[in-house]
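Please, structure for the following, as tokens.
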Amino acid sequence: MSTKTLSESATLIYDENCMFCKKCVGWIAKRARPGALEFLPLQAPGRSERFPELTDEACMEGMQLVLPDGPVRSGEQALPDLFRMLKRWRWFAFAFELPVVRWLSPIAYGWIARNRYMISEFVRRKEVTENAPCGVDTACDVQK
């Protein structure tokens, strides 16, 4: 069994300051085929030197997937390739070939990307509530 080097892996560049983005990366990382992906925050030292063609502005507009052979997929265009790199989710890549999905995915992804910090706040509040002790930001039936 051989392991891929980073140059043989695709690189997913994401916004580390966005909790929603980090949750998505965590979900992807758990399901990725071994060696298929490297995860790189756009804020990482050396990222702009390693990928000079990807501006900070482009990275803030959406995730960037740099494929091993060089092409870059941005935002929703990265999704089919990402799904192909996941265990048990490869079949889902075909959905992006459907005309309605091809039409809707840029709209949906664009809205999510523009509102990711608001979505992150919702995710953060949900986590705080779920992990809060009984009686703090949540109701519980346990007798005190």
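The first helix runs from residue 19 to 31. The helical segments are 19-31, 47-50, 56-61, 79-84, 99-114, 116-131.
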